[in-house]
Design brief:
By secondary structure, the protein is an alpha+beta fold. It has 2 domains: 69 residues, Arc Repressor Mutant, subunit A, CATH 1.10.10; 128 residues, Muramoyl-pentapeptide Carboxypeptidase, domain 2 (2-Layer Sandwich), CATH 3.30.1380. 52% of the residues lie in helices and 18% in strands. The strands form 2 sheets. The protein has a 4-stranded antiparallel β-sheet with strand order 3-4-6-5, covered by helices on one side. A two-stranded antiparallel sheet has the order 1-2. The chain is globular. The termini are far apart.
């Protein structure tokens, strides 16, 4: 499917922010709302986006929010999902669930070592989370950090291993433990949104561990 650069940018905003109304998309792309609606109409005709009308909380018209369809998600990095799932199934068949869990733990350990290098020079927890997000973006997760009071929210708008994670739930658990390891004992990491649980993205709250005593 051939898409213009403008339509690709609209899809990228919806991937990061969706479900979202027309106004925020227009502001982020610095184009008119009419132009955004035109792109969304074309994308909807191609089956790439869909809309939901939300009843207003007060006076005014209902708001329309736009989000990607499952077809659009296939346009983003997926890391040869079919082959990965087949390999996971083959490993599970060959050495059993416990053996597969050990394989996932080994992968997570290697990943931790690589990610630790990305935050090695960080002096604060915030710098560590930012470094982790940058590395995750490089791996296709479209990660960003949002400050929330004294906490940090690590948001991942894309999952390049989504099909593999759906086939092997321990993959997500291993990544959560990996975040704990990389950010160190000063941090507490809690997953608040999970793509495979029906959320639009994965999100992790990173808090400073309270001092003892």
């Amino acid at each position: 499917m051939s898409l213009s650069d403008a339509k690709k940018r609209v899809l990228d905003v919806l991937k990061r922010r969706g479900p979202v109304a027309v106004g925020p998309v227009a502001r982020e792309l610095d184009i008119t709302e009419a132009a955004v609606r035109q792109h969304l109409t074309a994308l909807e005709q191609n089956g790439l986006v869909g809309s939901v009308v939300s009843e207003p909380h007060g006076p005014g018209r209902p708001a329309t929010y736009w989000a990607l369809t499952s077809l659009a998600r296939d346009l983003f990095p997926d890391r040869h999902a079919d082959l990965t799932v087949e390999l996971i199934d083959a490993i599970r068949t060959a050495i059993g669930p416990e053996g597969l869990a050990k394989v996932m733990a080994t992968r997570a350990g290697r990943q931790s070592a690589l990610y630790a290098e990305a935050v090695a020079d960080a002096e604060t927890l915030g710098e560590k989370v930012a470094g982790l997000a940058a590395r995750r973006t490089g791996d296709g997760y479209m990660a960003e950090v949002v400050a929330d009071g004294d906490d940090y929210i690590l948001v991942e708008h894309n999952c390049p291993v989504c099909e593999a994670a759906a086939s092997c739930g321990s993959l997500c658990d291993a990544e959560l433990r990996m975040f704990d390891s990389v950010l160190g004992p000063q941090a507490v990491v809690v997953r608040e949104q999970h793509l495979l649980s029906g959320d639009e993205r994965c999100a992790y709250r990173v808090s400073r561990r309270p001092s003892e005593g």
